[in-house]
Amino acid sequence: MNDRAETLEFQAEARQLLQLMVHSIYSNKDVFLRELISNASDALDKLRLAALRDKDLAVDTDDLHITIEVDRDARTLTVRDNGIGMTRDEVVSVIGTIAKSGTAELLRQLREAQDAGASQELIGQFGVGFYAAFMVADSVELTTRRAGESGGTRWESSGEGTYTIAALDDAPQGTAVTLHLKPADAEDNLHDYTAEWTIREIVKRYSDFIAHPIRMTVERPGTDGAETTTETVTLNSMKALWARPRGEVEPAEYHEFYKHIGHDWADPLETIHMRGEGTFEYEALLFIPSHAPIDLFSPQGRRGVQLYVKRVFIMDDCDALMPNYLRFVKGVVDAHDLSLNISREILQQDRQIRAVRRRLVKKVLATVKDLKTEHPERYRTFWTEFGAAVKEGLIDDTDNRDTLLEILSAASTHDPAELTDLAGYVSRMKDGQSDIYYATGENRATIENSPHMEAFRAKGYEVLLLTDPVDEVWVERVGSYDGRTLRSIAKGEVDLDTEEERTEAEAERERQRTEYADLLTWMGGVLADSVREVRLSSRLTTSPACVVGDAHDLTPTLEKMYRAMGQELPKVKRILEINPGHPLVTGLRKAYEQDGANDSLAETAELLYGTALLAEGGDLADPSRFARILADRLARTL
């Protein structure tokens, strides 16, 4: 080692995470070995891929393997690979810090977690498995050399607050992680990780499916006084799990494979094992997780499907195999007839890959549909975790739109606790009802308390309550279900009366139109900068006013979404509807008839419009002016 060594501090949040992991997280500390082996396997896959793509990279990929080395006297355990390795900057970036969004939120959740199982699931969401080594080691040493580089890097830390990093003039290609083990402690579930059978059992349980050999040199006592001998054994079977018949694979094997490729600590919600035969052969092993990853809605979030060709790893996060709305699906697709050096760009245009993608999507959606029918509790978990992402498919996946509509669930006014599907809504529609009514908003309480709901509540009409941002888009794009129009209760005119009720009320409505004609015209002028029209409402029963849009207007929420994406839109003026039966509105009409259009009445009209906006959860254009007018009015009443 040369003299270019320096001591650096861990990122503050990395120090906190280390302390939590070492002192309070895991009851099952054996998983540290699974994490180190998984990292080594990834490094081997990356080297093979780099060699395929860069013919000038002078590396030998004929014997890619992982080695476990034990020194019982020194109480050290080393996990070594001859994979891609790391540069010094990569070591600092990957290990010295936790350069992942949401780390502070992770730490908060870890502190609040009530049991070890929950804590393990949280750790799995952030891919910080390397730190698990500090659960069983007093200190950790890492040496590494990037393939194609001449020098290496050495990293050491006791996991307290600092780490030492130095350049190495000579180091083998790949990465070696050496753990200086703590003493065994049965009470703390800390096993003797220098024992051969302990290591064998852990590898068999967690890493038997790893595609590269995991080797260890073991001692064999001689017989009849002969000297002790050593031999190198392979600890894992290296059987590609996806290539084995489903009947030969135990559920526990599927679960451990999922945890390996998904970097998760929880079992998957559902396993999909399928094989495609004919003109294009492939095997696929897919998993639906039991919880959403922290980066599900991040533009930089990871995809979940890996592509192999003839058992050779080609690429991670293969977006050509799964649409964006199913980005949470994890798994492996092993194609038999692709080139080993196929690029991501070529994949996007490959006809066979597009055919595989169609089959995978249909299988995943069919699996969810079966969950909905046969396992309602598991389906409920799925929809709670991934429903908002799945609904994105309703916007652009027209081929599978009907299936997506079948598996869709939403809250509704029918039941305060249970979700409903569209078929259930249709089955409960009132006689003569032709449309499926829905409302969008930030949360259920805001929607249910909105003035737009009053007539529907009074008449007993069920309304779907849609609270995800994507709901604003897909309902417009889809338009209808089972021949029924999806109709927003906050758009257009609403008339829920029967023909008989309409006939009986026609005379009263005509009288109101005549009485309020002048007031409506005046208010339209006063509020011309904010609204397109002021009209009488047939949807209000208790509120004085509400703001609605025309049938084809953008909703305020959708306007905000477009502007947040940098798309400037012309201001959409909506319609103010007033309730002719409300005392405030009748009083305003009488005051206008008696006193004409004075400033005080104009301010009352502004307040009426502002309260209508606030009642639906909207934003005031000038909150300070609204507050000043309201305060002046309140002062006059005292």
Automatic annotation (TrEMBL):
The keyword Chaperone applies. Residues 345-560 are annotated as: B. InterPro entries: HATPase_C_sf, HATPase_dom, Heat_shock_protein_90_CS, HSP90_C, Hsp90_fam, Hsp90_N, Ribosomal_Su5_D2-typ_SF. It is found in: Cytoplasm. CDD domains: HATPase_Hsp90-like. The keyword GTP-binding does not apply. It comes from the Bacteria. Molecular chaperone. Has ATPase activity. This is Chaperone protein HtpG. It comes from Micromonospora fiedleri. The gene is htpG.
